């Protein structure tokens, strides 16, 4: 049997955490032959709820689950962690300034970065889910300099999956036959869901999404805003933000990163920009990536039209502003 992999979930008493931990314990993140040890972190006010999550994990008798540590101690939580899913954060409350929310999250991620830096496995892979996801990831990277920068990523896979879902619904095809959409940029309403390279497998071979949809007006307006605003639409209907779809896409993100993307398929991940596609280096920006042997690489050479360029630049601008705001909170 394989050695267990230790997975940290922060914010584990929250609603995404509650959906995510059983998925990991069932093997949906690392495969059904991979035993796992779960480290669950939350803060003191949530300690009892966190312990209930641990009780339910024990009660589920998951065959792959080799241990559970539920703690409010950051060092204990980060010790020997191979994969860290950072879901805990400070939510924006009514009437709060953006700067105040940023400041809270900067101090959380600065502290958690330091704990991972000192106590996690040296090759620990990190996925930032908590918002502002891209900028929190950047702060974590800054304060965990010994973790390779390629190991620090943020979640835009939910947006990617939402884009696949919208195309599948529009064309009445199975979502599994749609591939290679792209989410560029920030996990925020400035993200750019791009279908210019997306395809659908049909009985008659592979067809382009643009050709099949045959309605550029819809693809350039309503489709884009639907994906950008999907999180808000869920909150409006559910009175609470998306949870199991976020958890499921976090599993997709890690699974594809660790086990590889299928041949001919790419996914979207927020990763440290190397300047590809003219995106300023030093931002955590969502790109199309393929993964092999635990490493991602940005898909190169895609043709970018003027419409896409403007949208890719606008979301980069927002990330540059967020980065400046985050740095202004450091002192
Ligand atoms: P919840 O408020 O239900 O859960 C958050 C949990 O984090 C709480 O249990 C809280 O006590 C805990 N927490 C707060 N500070 C902490 C700290 N310093 N250390 C450890 N735990 C801490 O929120 P939930 O709906 O689960 O969402 C979690 C985060 O995911 C939010 O920031 C949310 O904005 C973000 N999202 C990101 C998505 C993405 O695609 N990147 C999509 C879904 C989601 O909106």
Q: Can you put this structure into words, describing what you see?
A:
- By secondary structure, this protein is of the alpha/beta class.
- Helices cover 43% and strands 20% of the residues.
- The chain is built from twelve helices and 14 strands.
- It has helices at 15-25, 47-59, 74-78, 98-119, 133-142, 157-171, 209-213, 216-220, 222-228, 230-238, 244-259, 306-329, and strands at 5-10, 36-41, 65-71, 83-86, 125-128, 152-154, 178-179, 182-184, 192-194, 199-202, 205-208, 267-272, 284-292, 295-298.
- The chain has a six-stranded parallel sheet.
- A hairpin with a 7-residue loop joins strand 8 and strand 9.
- The site of ligand NAX has 29 residues, from helix 1.
- Pfam families: Ldh_1_C, Ldh_1_N.
- Residues 156-324 form the Lactate/malate dehydrogenase C-terminal domain.
- GO terms for molecular function: L-malate dehydrogenase (NAD+) activity.
- This is Malate dehydrogenase.
Question: How would you spell out the order of helices and strands?
Answer: EHEHEHEHEHEHEEEEEHHHHHEEEH
**Helicity, as a percent range:** 40-55%
Could you describe the largest sheet, including whether it forms a barrel? Answer: 6 strands, parallel
Query: Strands of the largest sheet, in order across it?
Result: 3-2-1-4-5-6
Structural class: alpha/beta
Beta strands, count: 14
| N- and C-termini, Cα separation | 48 Å
Regions with pLDDT < 50 over 5+ consecutive residues? none
- Ligand roster: ligand NAX
Kindly state the mean pLDDT as a whole number? 97
Beta-strand proportion = 15-25%
């Amino acid at each position: 049997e394989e050695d267990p992999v230790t997975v940290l979930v922060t914010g584990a008493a929250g609603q995404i955490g509650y959906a995510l931990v059983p998925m990991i314990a069932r093997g949906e993140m690392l495969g059904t032959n991979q035993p796992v040890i779960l480290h669950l972190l939350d803060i003191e006010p949530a300690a009892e709820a966190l312990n209930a999550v641990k009780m339910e994990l024990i009660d589920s008798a998951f065959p792959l689950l080799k241990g559970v540590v539920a703690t409010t101690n950051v060092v204990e939580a980060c010790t020997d962690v191979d994969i860290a899913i950072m879901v805990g954060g400070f939510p924006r409350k009514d009437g709060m300034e953006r700067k105040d929310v940023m400041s809270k999250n900067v101090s959380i991620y600065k502290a958690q970065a330091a704990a991972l830096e000192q106590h996690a496995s040296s090759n620990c892979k990190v996925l930032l889910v908590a918002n502002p996801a891209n900028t929190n990831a950047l702060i974590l990277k800054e304060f965990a300099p010994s973790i390779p920068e390629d190991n620090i990523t943020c979640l835009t896979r939910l947006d990617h999956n939402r884009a696949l879902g919208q195309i599948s619904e529009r064309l009445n095809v199975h979502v599994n036959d749609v591939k290679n959409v792209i989410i560029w940029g920030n996990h925020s309403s400035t993200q750019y869901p791009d279908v210019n390279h997306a395809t659908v497998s049909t009985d008659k071979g592979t067809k382009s999404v643009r050709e099949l949809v045959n309605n550029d007006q819809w693809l350039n307006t309503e489709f884009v805003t639907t994906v950008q605003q999907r999180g808000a639409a869920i909150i409006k209907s559910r009175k609470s933000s998306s949870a199991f779809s976020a958890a499921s896409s976090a599993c997709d993100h890690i699974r594809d990163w660790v086990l590889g993307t299928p041949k001919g398929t790419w996914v979207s991940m927020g990763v440290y920009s190397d300047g590809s596609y003219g995106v300023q280096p030093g931002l955590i920006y969502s790109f199309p990536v393929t993964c092999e042997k635990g490493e991602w690489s940005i898909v190169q050479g895609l043709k970018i039209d003027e419409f896409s360029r403007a949208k890719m630049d606008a979301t980069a601008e927002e990330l540059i502003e967020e980065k400046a705001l985050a740095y202004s909170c450091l002192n």
